[in-house]
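C-alpha cells
________________
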Amino acid sequence: MKIKIIKIKILLASVCICFFLSGCMMIPHASGNEKVLVTYASSGYLQYYLRPAKMICADKDDKAFVLIDFTYQKDGRAYVTDAYVNFTLNCKTDAFISAARFVLTDSAVAELQNLSMLRRSKKEGLLRVTTTLEKERIEEVLQALYDSKALLEITLDDGSVKRFTVTRDLIDRIDEAFSK
C-alpha cells in the first residue's frame, strides 16, 4: 500500500514538473488578429508582412477583386529591401497577367517588376502572382494607397485592363504598419 502511494506521489510530481517545463518552453505566437506581422529577419533588419487585404474593382459592374499582401524590410525609417507584392486576382478569365502597376496620379506610376505566376485555377477563377516593388517606391505607394489616391492596374495578356481600389481593410493594415 505504501509503495502505491509513493508511486502515485512520484507520478503526480512528474506530471507537475512536465506541465511546468512545457509552459516555459512555449513559443509565443500571433493571435491571428494582427494585420501586420513584424519579425526580426536574419539580415538584421525588421521584416514587415502586411497580411492579405482586399481591393475591389473600380468598375462597379465587375465582380473581380484582388487579395494583396506586402513584405519588406526596414532599418529604422529606411526601407532596405525591395518589397514583395503578392496578389491573387479573383476573376473568371482564360487570360494570364502580363503586367501590373500602381497608378498614383495621372502621370505617376510604380511598376511592379519580376512578375511570376504562383498559382492558376480556371475552375476557381483565380490567378496568384508574386512581384517586386523597388524599395525607393514603397513608402510612396503605401502612402498613396492609405490616402485612397492609388489604384492597382492589372493588364491581362488578352489586352484587357482591370483597375482596383483600396478598401478600409487595406487602409487599416497600412495604418498599422506605419504605426510599428
